[in-house]
Amino acid sequence: MQQRKECWPRIVAIGGGHGLATLLRGVKKYTSEITAIVTVADDGGSSGRLRRALGVLPPGDFRNCLAALADDEALITQLFQYRFGNGGELNGHSFGNLFITAMTEITGSFERAILESGRVLAIRGRVLPSTLRDVTLLADLSLEARHVNRVAGESSISKAGGAIRRVYLEPDDAPAYPEAVREILEADMVVAGPGSLYTSVLPNLLVPDIARAVAASQAIKVYVCNVATQRGETEGYTAADHVAALEAHVGSGLFPIVLVNGNLDIHFDAPAGVELVAAHFPAATSYQVITGDLVDPIHPWRHDSEKLAQALFRIWREKSQSQS
């Protein structure tokens, strides 16, 4: 593990899924002053089964973030990510999801369960929910001309087909987790993404107090656009389309800096509907668009964690120098 560099900022990363975990794996090499704020809208897979059976908040994205902030070589981290197979009632469940669920029962609260799980894994940083309310993500989809279909459930949205016009939280007035708001207001840099735009990033920002905290924060604010489009969510999107979707949901300028992969020369066998996101923006855009090679050479539809961490640090250094 590299030693912390004193000039690194206090970072808050907002999102969920594998994209957020990728960012955390890169940044943790340089600082422990990082807080992940994670969506609780997940209702698929092991998380969804536990949520429906036991009424707990979905642990899967939290498990991935905890593992990303832990020692990658530690046996306990491998155990946390272990997924049961071979049929039976545990088939498809990960040990970490079951651990967090059991810890919720023992400690009496989900947030305490995440805290204690982080201590077990000796993580660098913190992992917090955006809200503790049991929320459902809904989406309005355009299926045919002038026909809109509303789909309920995060895991159902990308499978339903049709273009996403808007996503919602139900209830739409879920209170933010107070520690998440405090961390945003005290951060030096707030980063949204990478991750599924409609089902990982936006569900956090649709918690009203989270979006208000980001708007009020004096931090450097960066939106990290995905390297590739996502089937059922952002097919055909450019970087400008991603930002336009953010604007439609939470207003313009919430994240004035947009970080976009500029390496479009890597070729891979992409599934239908998946392609590298082009950094196309209108010439008169009010956003500062920063491009660079952010591609993971082994999985070119994803970010490279080290490249992403270094790109964020460069943004922080340049902004800090210009303000001094």
How is this structure best summarized?
Helix content is 39%, strand content 17%. The protein is built from 12 helices and 10 strands. The chain has helices at 17-27, 45-54, 60-69, 75-81, 95-107, 110-121, 154-157, 178-186, 197-205, 208-216, 239-250, 305-323; strands at residues 11-15, 34-38, 126-129, 136-144, 147-152, 163-170, 189-192, 220-224, 257-261, 288-292.
Q: Major sheet: order of its strands? A: 3-2-1-7-8-9-10
Indicate the structural class.
alpha/beta
The coarse overall form would be globular
Percent of sequence in beta strands: 15-25%
Distance between the termini: 30 Å
Average pLDDT taken over every residue: 91
Query: Largest sheet, described in full?
Result: 7 strands, parallel
Low-confidence stretches: 1-5
Please count the helical segments. 12
Q: What is the oligomer described by this structure?
A: single chain
Tell me the number of strands: 10
Rg over CA atoms, rounded to whole Å, is 19 Å
Helix content: 25-40%
Topology as H/E string?
Answer: EHEHHHHHEEEHEHEHHEHEEH
